[in-house]
Amino acid sequence: MTDRELVDSLFCAALAAVDPFRALLPHLRRVRELYLSGGFDRLVVAGFGKAALPMARAAEEILGASIDCGLVIVPHGCQPTTPLHRIEVAAAGHPHPDRDGLAASLRIMELARAADDKTLLLLLISGGGSALFTAPADGISLEQKLQTSRLLMEAGADILELNTVRKHLSNIKGGRLAALAHPARLISLAISDVPGDSPDVIASGPAYSDPTSFTDALGVLNRLGISSQVPGPVLERLRQGAAGAVAETPKQGDPIFSAVTTIIAARNRDAQEAAARAASLQGVRVRLLEEPVCGEARWAGEKLAAIALSERKRLAPGERLCLISGGETTVRVAGMGKGGRNQELALAFAMAIEGEPGITLLSAGTDGIDGPTDAAGGIVDGETAAFAKAAGLAPERSLADNDAYILLDRCAGLLRTGATGTNVMDLQIMVLSRPDADGAVSTA
Is 75 exposed, middle or buried, given 0-12, 13-18 or 19+ CB atoms closer than 10 A? Predict the structure, then answer.
């Protein structure tokens, strides 16, 4: 198996380990036991995110006719080919919210308001939920919130910064959905797509206490230099909130969370460990990198390249090593090109290892989507940059113009998986090898 084939197979093993349907089954069995023994009159299911459809299918598989009603929101294009029996599926915009998402979110809010102390409300939460589950705060239009989100993303806001602002422009994020559902028994099953797996950040924490404030949200805008660009009503709401004129998001210790339970069913670390097990089964020595891959994608690519070059020097002849990491980087958009954070990371990595044999990197989103492209990410090695130059492309120019997609496509460096139905951030899988005197690499 070549190094390129190996990294691809390890990525497939990682995805299988964080399949939402399988990940939820043991937790749903406990939900069923609670419902049957807890004296409830109704079981209501609501969900939102890129993994909402397989999560809903799992809920129907285990809970069946016990489900009174339900609604999940998925990205456009992810609707089921065969309908679910008890749970309705609505499609909405992602990564930017739209009117369809607003309409479906208002319906989930009504389900929450109708819940009482004899209701068990099951929330199915996954990455992408912040855009799909949207209900702007009073005085803020959907267009104004959309404009603010775009400005944050283009300025390179990380997920914590982005969701800090989102929570304070919303009627449902930052614990406010839990407030609507109180005093119902509420259980959230979540697929984590955020560093640290913090429930308050996943889908902007609609049913979890919020440690951030209006002042923090203002600080994000100031730090990214976009305060003067956001719509006036947005800035005014944040300023009023910081002055105490608008109620803060619910905080830890609030009674509304007394009947709320949050369970993380799958996370990035699960995917990393599955890839590591698959590498070991192939006879390849493996090591997980403990530090999350975050920050600017191009700088992260250079940092990983430095690690790869250093580790390869230490290999004995014929030895092979797999390094696995995960996280989520950002891209500060300065050019007019096409790409995503994983493609940009891969291109920067390829430029840093140009001409170096025995180094292959896969960097991809576990959701199968990298930026506004049809690729999940990129696969590169020491020949990628040279191949691009021979084809008349300029890697430095492509990187500066945020145009990694075209270059990687020309170099057979794009990884296309299609939407995977899960989302636990990104994975980077590096395979390093040092041939022996005969040019062979050991797989044992």
Answer: buried
pLDDT of 83 = 87
Alpha-carbon span 3 to 25, nearest angstrom: 34
With a CB cutoff of 8 Å and minimum separation 6, the contacts of 359 are: 305, 308, 309, 312, 353, 381, 382, 430, 431, 432
Q: How far apart are CA 7 and CA 29, in angstroms?
A: 35
Burial of 281 (0-12, 13-18, 19+ CB in 10 A): exposed
440 band by pLDDT with thresholds 50, 70 and 90: low
CA separation for the pair 52, 47 (Å, rounded) = 6
* Paired residues of 431 in beta bridges: 322, 360
Query: Can you give the pLDDT at residue 339?
Result: 96
CA-based nearest residue to 209, from 137, 259, 257: 257
Widest distance between CA atoms in the chain: 74
Q: Is 127 exposed, middle or buried (0-12, 13-18, 19+ CB in 10 A)?
A: buried
Q: What is the pLDDT of residues 332-381, one digit of tens each?
A: 988 999 999 999 999 999 999 999 999 999 999 999 999 999 999 999 99
Q: Which residues contact 307 (CB under 8 A, 6 or more apart)?
A: 289, 323, 430
From-to residues of CATH 3.40.50.10180 in the chain: 19-135+170-212+249-266
CATH architecture observed for domain 269-433: 3-Layer(aba) Sandwich (3.40)
Task: Output the pTM of the full model.
Answer: 0.91
Pick among 3.10.20.30, 3.40.50.10180, 3.30.70.260, 3.50.4.10: CATH of 19-135+170-212+249-266: 3.40.50.10180
Contact 268, 290 (CB under 8 A): no
CB 266 within 8 A of CB 126: no
Q: Residue 217, CB half-sphere, CA atoms under 13 Å: how many?
A: 30
Contacts of 400 (CB under 8 A, 6+ apart): 334, 335
Q: How far is CA 333 from CA 234, 296, 400, 432, in A?
A: 22, 11, 9, 31
Amino acid at 443: T
